[in-house]
Amino acid sequence: MTGGRAAGGRVKNAVSLSFLLRRVNRTAVSVAIGIVFVATLAGSFVIGLMGLVESAHVQARVLADNAIPAIRFGDKRAARELLESLHHWPEVQAAELTGPDQRLLARYVRDGPAGPGTPAVADADPGMPMGWIHVRQDIEYGGGWFGRVTLTLSVAVLVRQTAWIGVVTLLAALAAFWVSGLLLRRANRSMLAPLRSLNLLMARVHGQSDFSVRARSSHVREIDALGQGFNEMIEKVQDRDRQLARLAFSDNLTGLPNRSAFLERLEREVQRAARRGHRLGLLFLDLDGFKQVNDTLGHDCGDRLLVEAAGRLREALRPSDATALAAGAANDSGAARLGGDEFTVLLPGLREVDDVLVVARRIGDLMRRPFAIGGRELSVTTSIGAAVFPDHGGDAATLLRNADAAMYHSKRAGRDNSRVYNAAMTEHATVRPQPAAEPRAARP
């Protein structure tokens, strides 16, 4: 017996391989043979019937054209001879020719006398198993109705032909069923194909490091167990790779993207902005007073401060804000930690260059609020430098360098403010001196 799927994709009540193959073979072959048998009989009969009707219409039109002289002169003999020419066509059982006054001019009945006194067709052959087909063709002459040819055909011959086709098809079906049984017994002896397929998947994983492959569930116990074990192994490997990727591209302390992830995304965003003709804003942030916190309160307190600062960055970049975005631009701003107390923010799709200050000021306002860490209130402000693609740099490296220069200029201007890059700042960014001792940033 077979059952439904349990949690995790396993198949309940899986059957043995040999039983499954026998059942599938018998069902598939029986259904296929039945469909072919019915389709063959129905198709043969319908096609034959359509051909018979079409031929009858053609013959009736020919008779109608040839019957005009006989009708004009009332020549019953010529009309009778014309209808008797149908004798070579066994499906035609009777034919009638009427004149313009709708009086019978001639009648033909197969294997019976012809003429006005001939019995009706139904009386002539009452044992027809499938009835009759009547084909009528009007005769026109001189612009009006001039007579009619009526043919009565029997489908008995067509039925006999279809029956013979059915017998031949049935014999062929029985032969096919017998051959399929032989093939199934041979297949049972070589049912290692699913196992070979699983081995190919394993070789693909091992040789090409393609961990996207999965083995399909099966109602065969042995193969299903192997496939499930294979899939679980691949999923564990993928989980490990995802964890390694998070370690490689995420900052362990704040959870923000790290320097590697930021640089990779900056390259992508610059290329996308160039393709779409958008502006791309870059903010370079440095926490004022962070060194003082580390020196006086210790690195644990400094780490907690960085975590809180990262949270405020996320708050400042809330998705609902579209103040500085151009029409149709996606709001996918994102922050990253470059290292130490330096952070960056990407602002795709800006309308104007100065719009970077809208977000920069919000970040500054949030960072200006005291941080409650370890029972103390810490006051740490932020110096922010901004650069915009393509106005302040045509590539990622130049954009980052100029944003850094603007941040340095912001610190020189007294900290706790933001500056947009201009060319005059470049000469000051060539050599970045060590910052002077910062005022105490914590108060008990």
Task: Summarize this structure as a short list of keywords or feature phrases.
444 residues; alpha+beta; Beta-Lactamase; Alpha-Beta Plaits; 3 domains; five-stranded mixed beta sheet; four-stranded antiparallel beta sheet; 13 helices; elongated; disordered C terminus
Secondary-structure topology with pairs:
Blueprint: H1 17-66, H2 68-73, H3 76-84, E1 92-98, E2 104-109, H4 121-124, E3 132-141, E4 144-154, H5 156-188, H6 193-208, H7 221-249, H8 259-276, E5 279-288, H9 290-297, H10 299-316, E6 334-339, E7 342-350, H11 356-368, E8 371-373, E9 376-378, E10 381-389, H12 396-412, E11 418-420, H13 426-429, E12 442-443
Parallel strand pairs: 10-11
Antiparallel strand pairs: 1-2, 1-4, 3-4, 5-7, 5-10, 6-7, 8-9, 9-12
Helix pairs in contact: 1-5, 6-7, 9-10, 10-11
Description:
This protein is α+β, with helices and mostly antiparallel strands and 444 residues long. It folds into 3 domains: 1-190, Beta-Lactamase (2-Layer Sandwich); 193-247; 259-443, Reverse transcriptase/Diguanylate cyclase domain (Alpha-Beta Plaits), CATH 3.30.70.270. It is 51% helix and 18% strand. The chain contains 13 helices and 12 strands. A 5-stranded mixed β-sheet has the order 6-7-5-10-11, with helices on both faces. The chain has a 4-stranded antiparallel β-sheet with strand order 2-1-4-3. It has a 3-stranded antiparallel β-sheet with strand order 8-9-12, with helices on one face. α1 runs antiparallel to α5, α6 packs parallel to α7 and α10 (299-316) crosses α11. The chain is elongated. The model is unreliable at 113-130, 320-331 and 429-444 (pLDDT under 50).
